[in-house]
Amino acid sequence: PFCELESAPGLYIAGIACRPAWRGKGIGTRLLEKTRRRAMSEDLPELSLIAFEENAASVRLYEREGFAIVARRAVPTHPLFQYGGDCVLMVAPL
Q1: What is the pLDDT of residue 35?
Q2: Which of 27, 31, 47, 80 has the most crowded Cβ, counting Cβ within 10 A?
Q3: What is the pTM of this model?
């Protein structure tokens, strides 16, 4: 279950999204920077999020921003899910 993909204490990022036309322009990086500043101002030790491993572009972004994969779970089949494979818990220390 996805509830097993948790990391605490820290700030959990529930989701980041950007319209396709705006991808690759640094928006995700800026959103992560703003989130990192907020977590640091609250003295939290880390950021965490769950990503679809098949979404290689997002996983690369998170890795560039200091996140590492610490756990994974299989993605259940669902018509609304764009990706299959595994979901990965990624954590970045602050």
Answers
A1: 96
A2: 47
A3: 0.89
